[in-house]
Design a protein that fits this description.
Layout lengths: L13 H17 L3 H9 L4 H19 L4 H20 L4 H29 L7
Helix pairs in contact: 1-2, 1-3, 3-4, 3-5, 4-5
C-alpha cells in the first residue's frame, strides 16, 4: 500500500471558480449589496480570472435563455453575440473586461427576469418552439 502523504481535496478549477464567483456576484446584486458585488469584481486582477467569471455569466444566461419563447430566445442570443464582441474588443484591458462583466451580469439577470415573466404568462410549461 502506498502512502499518499495525506489526502487533500482537489483544488477548484479556474472554470469552477469563475462559475462560483459569477453566482456570488449575482446573489450579492440580487440582495442589493452592490458595493460588495463591485468589490468582488475589483478584486479580480488577472485577465484569466475575469474571463472565467464572464464564462460563468454566459453559461447562466444561455441556460436560462434556452427556456424562453422563440422570439425572446432569438433576442437573447443576439445580445450574447454583442457581449462576445465587447469581450473581444477588451481582450487585453482589465478595466474593459470588468465593464464587460457588469454587462454580462446585467444580461444574466435580465434573461432570468424574462424567463420568470414568460413562465407566469404561459404557466409552468416552457415555450420551446
Amino acid at each position: 500500500m502506498r502512502d499518499s502523504g495525506g489526502v487533500t481535496a482537489p483544488s477548484e478549477s479556474p472554470a469552477d471558480a469563475g462559475a462560483r464567483r459569477a453566482r456570488e456576484y449575482l446573489q450579492l446584486a440580487r440582495d442589493g449589496r452592490t458595493d460588495e458585488a463591485d468589490a468582488l469584481l475589483s478584486g479580480l486582477t488577472d485577465t484569466r480570472e475575469l474571463v472565467f467569471v464572464g464564462a460563468g455569466f454566459t453559461a447562466l444566461a444561455r441556460r436560462t435563455g434556452r427556456t424562453l419563447p422563440t422570439a425572446m430566445r432569438a433576442q437573447a442570443s443576439t445580445r450574447q453575440v454583442l457581449l462576445g464582441q465587447l469581450r473581444d474588443a477588451n481582450r487585453r484591458d482589465v478595466e474593459g473586461l470588468r465593464s464587460w462583466l457588469r454587462k454580462a451580469a446585467e444580461e444574466a439577470v435580465f434573461v432570468h427576469q424574462l424567463a420568470e415573466s414568460a413562465r407566469r404568462r404561459l404557466g409552468d410549461r416552457t415555450a420551446a418552439g
